[in-house]
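Researcher: Structure prediction, please.
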Amino acid sequence: MIKKEKEIERIDKVKKGIEFILSHFKERQPLFPRKMASGFSDGRQFTVYNEEQILNECIRANFMDCRINAYPVLADSTIPIRAPNLLFIDLDLCKDLPYEEALKKLDRSKNKTIKTINEKLEGCISTVLWTGNGYHIYVALETRPLELIKELKELSGEPSKEFLRFGECLFSNNKSDPKHNPSFQSLLLRIPFTFNSKCINQGKDPEVKVIQRFELSKIPQINTPLLREFRLYLADKDLESKRQALKRQCQINSQQFAVGSIGPLYQWIETLLKTPLKDNRKYCLWKIFIPYLKNVKKLTDDEVIAVLMEWLNVCNDLRKLDFEPSKRIKANIKHVNGYSPLSKTKLKEENIEIYDSVIGKNNLIGNF
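Model: Predicted structure follows.
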């Protein structure tokens, strides 16, 4: 009899937990169809169509690991854009610290995250759940698909999805679980008053508890300062992506060039490009590197800049540059015309210092 009463009590609590989670989506998303996962499905997602079905699936799984997707199934999969109107921040206990110490550290991260959300979203109150191993923080927002904002679409093919990841890093002050990489398909929210199986295995209280409830009447919009910050994030990410692509292309070009018929003739320049110098940096740019990279290797301006900026950064570690590297490179590219790089014979006549200290030091003369 007591067991039956506990089961009824659990069902009633979980039903309220389902209603609470769904309230984060009402009037801003279609509620159904939506994916969920449970211990019974071994974490695999399946489609549900109403609250009653969600509850039945929770009962079927003995309330174990019951989670529901923060975003509905798209009615038209050919138009895959969504408004990122719910953010999920995952804060986990540090496994390398004793439990009490790890919990204190986690609470500091949680409090700082709540404060950051409140400040950046003008008084926003977020939902906070205790999962037994950490905190899940859910931030409800009013927004449209970010693909509709031209300035963001120009920087990313999927700005709405990028915003899910940006928001988690920003609001958690980069303290969120680094393995958590949210997307619209994988963003699963735990249902309050269900159980976390990991905690049972660890001898902890497995019940998912509500620590703080969001305010349905005070859902904030993504404000202009936040959008501006997001745009800078996308711009930095886009720039880094292009830099890495240029670096890879330069490496490919170098490898292709190395096996070409003219490769051995300029091997000393390739070696010099890997040798940082304290002096003669401007000389090398104008007389050797830029004519070589532009007129022999036929690299684009951007590729030349990427190669030489990398070399100058290492040179700067030996002795600080007395010129602005990017401006110097661009000016030299502008006036390189069809000039060829110095030959090693001409270098010996013009700059014995480089010839002796670099070529001689690396014993490159014996290569020709």
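Model: The chain has two domains: 2-222, 241-367.
Researcher: Thanks, that helps.
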